[in-house]
C-alpha cells in the first residue's frame, strides 16, 4: 500500500486518538473504554510504517502518538492502583474497628502472658529455662552482643537483602499459623498467640536480666510496632474463624464460616502488608548497631504511635463500628 493511501485510510483514527490524548493529559480526564484497543491499533500501524519504510515524518508522527498514549495509559494504571490500595487499606481499618472484640481477645492472649513471663524471667533465671533451653539463651546473648556489627540473627553485613526475605518468610509463617489455627475451633489460634507472647516475654526478661537491654529494646521497638500488631491481628482473624465454627448462630456452619472468612481475609491483607514493612525495618534499620540508641528508641516510639493512630483513630476506616 502506498504511503498516501495508508494515511488516508487511518487519518481519522490518528486525529481522534490525538484529540483524546491531549484532552485527557491537559484536562486531567480519563480515556474511554475503547482507548486501549485504539492504542494497540496505533502500535500496529507504527510497526507497519517502519516495515514499509514510509517517510520519516509519518513514522515520527505515529511514534509521538504512541508515546503519548503510553504515558496516558501508564498514568491511568498508576492512579487505579493507588485507588485500589487506598480502598484496601480503608476496608482493613474498618474491619479492625468492626471486629475489635476479637482484636482485644487476641491482644490479651499475647500481652498478658508476655508480661507474666517477662517478669518471671527477669526475677528468676530458672523461670526462663522453663520455656527456652540454655543453648537458646547463649545464642540470644550472642545475637545481642553490643560488640556485633549487626544485631539479631547471625549473618554477614552484606546479607541485609537475604535477611529481608528470611524475615518475611518467618513472620508470614507465624501469621498464617495463627490464622489457620482458627479452623480447629480457635484452639490452634489460642496456642500460637499464647506461645508467641510467652516466648517474647521470656526473651525480653532474660536479656534484660543479663544486661542486654541496651541492644535488645532498640532492636525490637522499631519493627515491633508493625510485626507484633500484625500477629495480634492475625490472631483476631483466627478467633473469628473459630467463633464461627463454634457458634454459627442462625447460619449453617459452612455458611457462617464463609461469612467469617470474608471478613477475616480483610484483616489478613492488612496484616501481611504490616509484616512486609516490619521485615524491611528489621533487616535494614533494626539490625544496625551504628545508629544511636536514642534515635532508635525515639523512632520506634513514633512508629508505635503511628500504627495505633492509623488502626484505631484515623478517618480512613470511618467511625468505629461493632458487630
TrEMBL record:
One Pfam entry name: SpoIIM
The UniProt record lists the keyword Thylakoid: no
Transmembrane domains' residue ranges: 102-123, 172-194, 199-219, 225-246, 267-285, 297-317
Keyword entries, A-Z: Membrane, Transmembrane, Transmembrane helix
Protein name per UniProt: Uncharacterized membrane protein SpoIIM, required for sporulation
Taxonomic placement: Bacteria, Pseudomonadati, Pseudomonadota, Gammaproteobacteria, Oceanospirillales
Amino acid at each position: 500500500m502506498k504511503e498516501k493511501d495508508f494515511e488516508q485510510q487511518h487519518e481519522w483514527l490518528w486525529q481522534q486518538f490525538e484529540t483524546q490524548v491531549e484532552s485527557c493529559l491537559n484536562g486531567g480526564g480519563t480515556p474511554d473504554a475503547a482507548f486501549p484497543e485504539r492504542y494497540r491499533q496505533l502500535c500496529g500501524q507504527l510497526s507497519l510504517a517502519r516495515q514499509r519504510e514510509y517517510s520519516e515524518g509519518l513514522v515520527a508522527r505515529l511514534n509521538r502518538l504512541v508515546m503519548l498514549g503510553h504515558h496516558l495509559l501508564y498514568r491511568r494504571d498508576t492512579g487505579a492502583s493507588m485507588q485500589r490500595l487506598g480502598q484496601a487499606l480503608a476496608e482493613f481499618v474498618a474491619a479492625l474497628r468492626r471486629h475489635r472484640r476479637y482484636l482485644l481477645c487476641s491482644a490479651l492472649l499475647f500481652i498478658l502472658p508476655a508480661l507474666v513471663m517477662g517478669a518471671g524471667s527477669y526475677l528468676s533465671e530458672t523461670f526462663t529455662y522453663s520455656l527456652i533451653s540454655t543453648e537458646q539463651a547463649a545464642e540470644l546473648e550472642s545475637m545481642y552482643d553490643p560488640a556485633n556489627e549487626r544485631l539479631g540473627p547471625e549473618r554477614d553485613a552484606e546479607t541485609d537483602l537475604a535477611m529481608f526475605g528470611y524475615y518475611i518468610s518467618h513472620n508470614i509463617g507465624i501469621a498464617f499459623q495463627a490464622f489457620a489455627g482458627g479452623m480447629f475451633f480457635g484452639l490452634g489460634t489460642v496456642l500460637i498467640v499464647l506461645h508467641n507472647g510467652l516466648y517474647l516475654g521470656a526473651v525480653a526478661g532474660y536479656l534484660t536480666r543479663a544486661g542486654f537491654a541496651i541492644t535488645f529494646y532498640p532492636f525490637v521497638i522499631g519493627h515491633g510496632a508493625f510485626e507484633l500488631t500484625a500477629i495480634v491481628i492475625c490472631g483476631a482473624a483466627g478467633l473469628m474463624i473459630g467463633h464461627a465454627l463454634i457458634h454459627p448462630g442462625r447460619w449453617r456452619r459452612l455458611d457462617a464460616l464463609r461469612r467469617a472468612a470474608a471478613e477475616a481475609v480483610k484483616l489478613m491483607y492488612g496484616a501481611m502488608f504490616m509484616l512486609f514493612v516490619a521485615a524491611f525495618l528489621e533487616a535494614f534499620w533494626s539490625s544496625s548497631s551504628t545508629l544511636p540508641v536514642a534515635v532508635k528508641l525515639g523512632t520506634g516510639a513514633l512508629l508505635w504511635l503511628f500504627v495505633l493512630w492509623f488502626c484505631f483513630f484515623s478517618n480512613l476506616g470511618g467511625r468505629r463500628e461493632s458487630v
